[in-house]
Amino acid sequence: MSMRSQIYEWDGARGTAVAAGNAGRRISIFIGGLGNNITKPAETTATQFIVIEDVAVTPSALSSSLDTAAYRGLSTANGISGPRAYVQVRINTTDYFLDPDNVGNDGIPGTASPYPRSLNFQPSFSLYPDVYVLPGQVFDVLTTFYNSTIFATLQAFVKYTLYDGPDALIANKLLEMGISINPGNVDWYKRTLIQSQSAMTV
Amino acid sequence: MSMRSQVYEWANLAPSGKTSALRRATDDIPVAVVANTEYDVFIGGLGNNITKPAETTATQFIVIEDIATSPFLGGAVQVRINTTDYFQNPDVTDQVGVPGLASPYPRGSASTSGGSDNLLKSFDLYPDVYVLPGQVFQILYSQRTASSATDTEVVAAFCKYTLYDGPDALIANKLLELGVTINPNNVDWYKRTLIEQQQRSAVAATAGSV
Hints:
The complex is a heterodimer. In chain A, α1 packs across α2. Chain A has helices spanning about 165-175, 185-200; strands spanning about 5-10, 25-30, 50-55, 60, 75, 80, 85-90, 95, 110, 130-135, 140-145, 155-165. By secondary structure, chain A is of the alpha+beta class. Chain A has one domain. Chain A is elongated, with a radius of gyration of 20 Å. Chain B is α+β, with helices and mostly antiparallel strands. Chain B has helices spanning about 165-180, 185-210, and strands spanning about 5-10, 15, 20, 30, 40, 45-50, 60-70, 75-80, 85, 100, 130, 135-145, 155-165. In chain B, strands 5, 8, 9, 10 and 12 form a five-stranded antiparallel beta sheet that branches. In chain B, strands 1-13-7-11 form a four-stranded antiparallel beta sheet. In chain B, strands 2-4 form a two-stranded antiparallel sheet. The two termini of chain B are about 40 Å apart. Classes of the chains: A alpha+beta, B alpha+beta. Chains A and B meet through β4 and β9 of A and β1, β4, β7, β13 and α2 of B.
């Protein structure tokens, strides 16, 4: 199978757990040295193509300055229930999400793209158009939290599709043609190749 | 990458002793919001702000796809393009815009701070709002009731937009001229038609030379 749906879940409480001193700093969910990590930076080989379809992080709820009671399952401090977390995608050295003044920002708030989703925390954001990681590129997903007293439940989630071998070549071709890269369109391109081959044989 | 999904989140949070800041910080606390005053979420001097007014360059095109705000205290959001408010009353007078009760942020939020209900959206920003090259835009937050002086409520606003840059912004302009909705699918469709046209003329030129 050369098109595979993949996910990566990061949990700040596993391995070397996230601490208060990490608040306000960007943490790579792959190789940041905190939570569960992988062995090397996330990258595509020359025969791979990745399409990131969703990113999400632990949500927060809005509260008020004197509130200290837990709200919706999240501890409260400084008027926010939850870690006040954000998630950014970086391709090579370029941040994907920018402010309108073209300055890189913290990324998608967990409040807009919550993980996990629930009745209390529903998404306001969908990652469309998707983010493409071309062959040979390095990518990273960076999370930042600002509520320095609440980080026990800090999790991030990435959903992507990995195209490998011939399907990665087709993905590149679709990119050249200005067609969205998704499994349906890759299959469509294969069918058109087969049909044109059959027509030539006949 | 010349079509990018972007978001901007604003909240009335700033470091102690300040009313606004360019970067979020770990010591941010809620700042009181005055009733019936429109705050530009980008450069309004309250909460997190950016360095300059939000505007498109000559090679950028922005499509605003969603706006939302916290429903507490009668919060509402308005979009302003250059000097024109997007949401108007039927008698063409000014209004505060989309109420947080209709487009809540976060989605599933309670209607009051600390409440237990879950609000769903009644409002969908469709058709989208276009910000053409060279235009300035603002997202204005206002609330009917002032924040509590002692137990200040945290309020927030959210904007989701797609930024078309370079060649894709030119295509977006072309689609606008054609009266076709600007979205990533239609920009891709236009690119495909250009490629097909090019291929057809190349084939015709080859056939002609034979």
